[in-house]
Design goal:
The complex is a heterodimer of chains A (about 400) and B (about 300).
Chain A (H helix, E strand, L loop, with lengths): L1 H8 L5 H26 L5 H7 L1 H14 L7 H25 L4 H24 L11 H4 L7 H30 L1 H6 L4 H23 L4 H13 L5 H25 L5 H19 L5 H25 L7 H9 L11 H23 L4 H5 L12 H11 L8
Chain B lengths: L1 H31 L4 H21 L4 H26 L3 H22 L9 H6 L19 H4 L4 H19 L1 H9 L1 H6 L4 H23 L1 H16 L5 H29 L8 H19 L13
Helix pairs in contact in B: 1-7, 1-10, 1-11, 1-12, 2-3, 2-4, 2-10, 2-11, 3-4, 3-10, 7-10, 10-11, 11-12, 11-13, 12-13
Classes of the chains: A mainly alpha (about 400), B mainly alpha (about 300).
Chain lengths: ~400, ~300
């Protein structure tokens, strides 16, 4: 199995599988980078409404093509149909949120369930139709690459490439709109048109991905990569490209894994690969990750214990807390029998003096920002100038030595 | 048509109505709290729940599956909260990440395990099979008093009735805390209402409704009934009591009209096959909502210009 997987990975397991993998990678890049704007605009789930609204279009297009004597399975025809109803669904969401008192989440839920319901009605009508070969239409629900034709794969690859091109062209105005609509408007950007373009991009990705990932899971390709990318950087342009990379890698790996063994449906595998990347980022990302947060917390805890231990030494108070003791002895500030060393006495004297200076400083500058900087950890030298500190020292007198 | 109606249509109709009401009741509060999409998320994660339950027990039976689905719903809520807090991700995106991944996991498990022998597939999970819940041993209206025939009623009917009754009862008992914490969370916690418990309880009740209804009618009706009838009711009135009444009325109307149109509509049009009842019920609820958006008395936002 692993050798089959490796074959699929380096595009050796057949022409179609290779094409599907490349198409999935391109689609992933387009979805991951295009979804970033949606995520930054806090409208990620609008894509769910759009995706579900494609179903009636697929059904209608099939019926129309059969009525005109085709076999009804022309992918471009089906995708055009799905784009039409996806657009209608999008307009319905916008119209409901703008014209009624209902919130956007209610509008999204209403549109996705109703359009999906209509789509299912159409599917059952198609099932009972005598003409036309309806097999494979259910594939649009969860995606299927099994019976994929060469020209279907080409449609996906070309569509994905076009969507990536649009992202590259419109990334600056779209970023502006996502962050600050009013500023974008004053900078001369047509906000409404940019919103439409963003939604158009989402719609395009959804429609192109229908055959590959299916309409229920395509939203994952738009949402998970940007959310994953957000863990790694605080800069928008990087979120876009990292999101694109995450999407591309998930698409490619997912398609390769799915081609390596039976019963591994492409759509779910792609989604699960990107979810795996998401979980890794959630845990291990350098600043926003869970592990980093735990380390930060631990470091803070140790600093508090060190400071409180030093102050206790300065006041000649006994220390009982285990953690405090181990912090102090690890730094060589106290001996085994808890008596402070030379270094410990010096540090304790410094901590005590800092604390006294702070007490005076907080009275002197009671109404100023300095007061807010006091957290019991920040050395006063990093907040006040030496002149100001000398002023304080005149009040509290010369430093006192700590005797053990 | 009496005997045939009782045998073929009475029970699906009743189950549809009960499912619609069971979902619409918590839906009212979800809409007001702007958590409408919780219903959407829950109905997606029900799939991995029942698949895991099937893999553990090896049979398609009700209780393990209900438990599995409810467990999956709770796991999903925990994951969503964890992603929101740890990753500082906005709720919509956190939800999107969670339910799509869990659904994908469910589909994969389903494909990997051998379920060809049992009736368990994604299509069934999505649009259920309301039409198949018939009352075989009924011979007419008189069967309603016939103990032997009554014993043969589809078990889904009792489950759905129990769930709907339970949800109505809970709504009634917790009316005051529910109402207060929905409209003014700060005030509610100031007067001592445990608002966090109330919102978790609401999600759990929504999950119960989703799971019970899902078994009989599929997840598409569940999502539609969580949102469309309460949303339409929201546009009809400014009073919560009246809104709930309207939502129950709309839910019932959608279920009845949808079922009838699905079963008999195509016959009237000359076709000879019925269409999906689940899909039709969702469609009708959407049409009701569309009318409410166009004509309902309280459709505009307060402060919005007239005629806008």
């Amino acid at each position: 199995m692993s050798s089959i997987f490796l074959n699929a990975l380096v595009l050796q397991s057949g022409y179609n599988a290779a094409l599907v993998a490349l198409g999935a990678a391109l689609l992933g890049i387009a979805a991951g980078s295009g979804g970033t704007f949606l995520f930054l605009r806090k409208r990620a789930l609008v894509s769910d409404a759009v995706a579900h609204a494609t179903l009636p279009g697929v059904g209608l297009a099939f019926m129309i093509m059969v009525a005109f004597g085709g076999d009804g399975r022309n992918l471009i025809g089906l995708l055009l149909g799905s784009a039409v109803t996806a657009g209608l669904g999008l307009l319905a969401v916008e119209w409901i949120t703008r014209r009624t008192r209902l919130a956007e989440d209610a509008a999204i839920g209403a549109v996705l369930s109703v359009f999906f319901g209509v789509g299912i009605v159409f599917l059952t009508i198609i099932q009972s139709m005598s003409s036309g070969n309806q097999a494979g239409l259910e594939g649009f629900l969860l995606g299927s690459t099994a019976g994929m034709l060469f020209r279907d794969a080409v449609v996906i690859a070309v569509g994905g490439a076009l969507a990536v091109a649009v992202v590259i062209l419109l990334r600056r105005p779209m970023t502006l709109v996502a962050f600050d609509t009013e500023f974008a408007a004053t900078a001369g950007i047509n906000v409404r048109r940019m919103d439409l373009a963003m939604m158009g991009l989402v719609m395009a990705v959804t429609v192109i991905g229908l055959k590959l990932v299916g309409l229920i899971l395509i939203v994952a390709m738009l949402i998970i990569p940007p959310v994953t990318a957000r863990f790694w950087t605080e800069r928008t342009d990087r979120v876009i490209w990292i999101g694109g990379a995450v999407g591309g890698v998930s698409g490619y790996l997912g398609a390769a894994i799915s081609a390596s063994a039976p019963n591994l449906p492409t759509g779910p595998i792609i989604v699960l690969v990107s979810f795996g990347l998401f979980v890794l980022s959630l845990l291990f990302a350098p600043r926003r990750g869970m592990l980093a947060a735990l380390f930060r917390r631990r470091r803070f805890q140790l600093r508090v214990h060190r400071r409180q231990g030093l102050l206790a030494l300065a006041h000649n108070e006994p220390i009982f807390d285990r953690l405090t003791l181990s912090v102090l002895s690890r730094e060589g500030l106290i001996r085994q029998d808890q008596v402070p060393t030379e270094k410990g006495r010096a540090q304790a004297a410094k901590a005590l003096r800092d604390e006294k200076r702070w007490a005076v400083a907080r009275q002197l500058y009671a109404d100023e920002a300095v007061e807010g900087r006091y957290d019991g950890l920040t050395p006063i030298e990093t907040v006040l100038t030496w002149d100001e500190i000398a002023e304080i020292d005149r009040v509290i007198g010369p430093p006192t030595a700590i005797l053990s | 048509m009496g005997a045939e109606f009782v045998q073929l249509s009475l029970t699906p109709l009743l189950i549809g109505v009960l499912a619609a009401i069971a979902c619409a009741l918590p839906g009212n509060f979800l809409i007001l709290r702007r958590q409408a999409l919780i219903g959407d998320a829950i109905s997606h994660v029900v799939l991995p729940g029942i698949v895991v339950a099937f893999l553990i027990t090896g049979v398609v039976s009700t209780w393990p599956m209900l438990l599995g689905a409810a467990g999956a719903a709770i796991v999903a809520v925990i994951i969503i909260e964890a992603i929101k807090r740890i990753g500082r991700i906005e709720p919509g995106a956190a939800m999107g990440v969670t339910f799509t991944s869990l659904f994908a996991g469910g589909v994969l498990l389903l494909e990997q395990s051998d379920t060809s022998a049992v009736h368990l597939d994604v299509e069934h999970a999505l649009y259920g099979n309301l039409e198949s819940l018939i009352w075989l041993s009924a011979e007419g209206w008189s069967s309603l008093t016939d103990a032997a025939a009554l014993a043969d009623l589809p078990p889904e009917l009792f489950r759905m009735a129990a769930a709907a009754g339970l949800i109505a009862l809970l709504t009634l008992i917790f009316w005051r805390p529910l109402k207060l914490s929905t409209f003014d969370e700060g005030f509610a916690s100031a007067v001592g209402i445990p608002t966090a418990a109330v919102s978790l309880g609401l999600v759990v009740v929504a999950a119960v409704a989703a799971v019970a209804a899902f078994d009989a009618v599929g997840s598409i009706i569940v999502i539609a009934m969580f949102i469309c009838p309460p949303a339409a009711a929201r546009l009809m009135t400014n009073r919560l009591e009246a809104q709930i009444a309207w939502s129950v009325a709309f839910a019932t109307l959608s279920a009845v009209l949808g079922y009838v149109l699905a079963g008999y509509g195509p016959l009237w049009l000359g076709a000879d096959n019925a269409v999906s009842a689940a899909g039709m019920i969702a469609t009708v609820s959407g049409i009701i909502l569309a009318f409410a958006c166009l004509f309902a008395p309280h459709r505009a936002r307060i402060g919005a210009p007239r005629g806008a």
